[in-house]
Amino acid sequence: MRVDVPNIVHAYQTAERIREVHPDKDWFHLTGLIHDLGKIMSMYGEHQWATTGDTYPVGCDPAASIVYRDTSFDKNPDINDPRYSSKLGIYEEGCGLDKLMMTWGHDEYMYQVLKNHPTCTLPEEGLYAIRFHSFYPWHTGRDYTFFENETDKKMYPWLMEMNKFDLYSKSDDLPDIEKLEGYYQGLIDKYMPGLIKW
Fold first, then answer.
1. Tens digits of residue pLDDT in 52-92
2. Buried b / exposed e across 70-91, counting CB within 10 Å, b at 16+?
3. Would you say 134 and 53 are in contact if contact means Cβ atoms under 8 Å apart?
4. 34, 41, 52, 176: which could join 46 in a potential S-S bond, CB 3.0 to 4.6 Å?
5. Exposure pattern of 177-194 as b/e (b: 16+ CB <10 Å)?
6. What residue numbers does the annotated binding site for Fe cation cover?
7. Structure confidence at residue 1 (pLDDT)
């Protein structure tokens, strides 16, 4: 199994796997294609640690499921400040994930690009999946569920559906990108027309 494919290949593999299972949801195909596009930040000087990796909320106790949790926060003064180190920290129970201040990464960057693109009509399910697909402590570790609101519960199945294709789409079966470009350009023109500000 191939795991060292370029991001563009992974993007098309993810999108095409979604398309096979959900042929009637073209917005979902586009979501799969662009879900990691925020990684473009690394081409313009953003550090690797601020571009890729799992995301989690700041301003509350770091969950046990955060990768390297035991060593990552040793020198962070917030860990000893009760305002930021309690279970809820600066948030309220049930406030909704959209109210959490998340660690910076490609998910949040791409979400902000799309939210601020005036002609973006990608459905909320797609925007949500893009924004939280690297929030593994929540969607896979099931930590931070006490922050969920009804929207989060409604969106969770869509996020997990996309992650299924994101995580398990890399293979030796490489997509013919030139052949697929026209289809996906049509989706970009449909859901994100105009010049996008990066």
1. 889 999 999 999 999 988 888 889 999 999 999 999 999 99
2. eeebeeeebeeeeebbeeebeb
3. yes
4. 41
5. eeebeeebeebeeebbee
6. 10, 35-36, 106, 133, 166
7. 41
* Residue 62 maps to a domain: no
Domain annotation covers residue 182: yes
Number of domains in the chain: 1
Q: Indicate the annotated binding residues.
A: 10, 35-36, 106, 133, 166
Structure tokens at 193: 């027309």
Does 66 map to a domain? no
Residue 171 pLDDT grade (very low, low, confident, very high; cuts 50, 70, 90): low
Supply the pLDDT for residue 2.
46
Dist CA 166 CA 25 (whole Å): 16
Question: Does residue 42 fall inside a structural domain?
Answer: yes
- Parent domain of 103: 7-57+97-191
**96-111 mean pLDDT:** 96
